[in-house]
Amino acid sequence: MKFLFDLFPIILFFIAYKFAGIFAATAVAIAATIGQIGWVWFRHRKVDTMLWVSLVIVTVFGGATLFFQNPTFIKWKPTVLYWFFAGSLLFSVQFLGKNLIRSLLEAQMKLPEALWGRLNLAWAGFFGVMGFINLFVAYNFSEDTWVNFKLFGGMGLMLVFVLAQGMLLSRYIEEESK
Questions:
Q1: Is 173 helix (H, G, I), strand (E, B) or coil?
Q2: Nearest 10 degrees: CA dihedral of 77, 139, 128, 168?
Q3: What pLDDT, on a 0 to 100 scale, did the predictor assign at position 176?
Q4: Does residue 86 carry a pLDDT above 90?
Q5: What is the spatial distance between Cα 138 and Cα 9, in angstroms, rounded to a whole number?
Q6: Measured between alpha carbons, how far is 10 from 16 in angstroms, rounded to an integer?
Q7: Is there a contact between 62 and 27 (Cβ–Cβ < 8 Å)?
C-alpha cells in the first residue's frame, strides 16, 4: 500500500496529462504531492524527509513549468530527484560515514560489511542511470512517450532492479522464528 501511496502523484499526473495536457498534469502533481504530505502529517504527525524533498522539487520544477509555460522544467524533475537520491547515498557514506541503504534494510537482513557498500553503490548507480535515461527519453521522444515512460518505464525499470537485488540478497534475509 505504501508503494501505491508513493505513486499517487505520478498516477494522477499521468491521468491528468491524458485528459488535459502537460500544464494541467503539472498542477495536479503539485497539488497531489501537497495533499499527500497533508495526509501523512494528519495520520502520523511526521513526514519523511524524502517526501519533503519530492515536494520541493516538484513545486520548483512544476512551478517553473507553469510560470514559463515550458514543459522542459517538469521533464527535468525526475532526473533531479534521481540524482538527489544518488548523491545522498554517496554523500552519506563518504562524508557522514553512514550507509543509508544499510539503515533502511539491516533489520531485515545481515550482510557482510563489503556487501552493504556494494549495495549502496548499486542503488546510487541505478538512480544515476535512471536520471540519464529520463533525460534521454525527454529529449529524444515525444512528450506523450516521455509521460508514458515516466509512469510505466520508470516503474518497470525500478521493479526489475528491485527484483534482481532481491534475488541476489534473498539468502541474507532473516526469517522470523516460528
A1: strand
A2: 110
A3: 47
A4: yes
A5: 19
A6: 10
A7: yes
> Which runs of consecutive H residues, i.e. helices, occur in 69-112?
72-96, 100-105
Q: Which three cell numbers stand for residue 104?
A: 533502511
Give the CA dihedral 175, 118, 80, 5, nearest 10 degrees: 0
- The tally of CA atoms less than 13 A away on the side-chain side of residue 153 is 16
Q: Are 26 and 2 in contact (CB under 8 A)?
A: no
Answer whether 57's CB lies under 8 Å from 49's CB: no
In one-letter notation, the amino acid at residue 27 is A
Beta bridge partners of 109: 173
| For residue 94, pLDDT beyond 50 | yes
Q: What is the pTM of this model?
A: 0.87
| Cell of residue 43, nine digits | 495520520
d(CA 177, CA 60): 48
In this structure, what DSSP letter does residue 46 have?
A: -
Query: For residue 171, what is the DSSP state?
Result: G
CB crowding 71-110: b at 16 or more within 10 Å, else e: bebbbbbbbbbbbbbbebbbebbeeeeebbbbeebeeebe
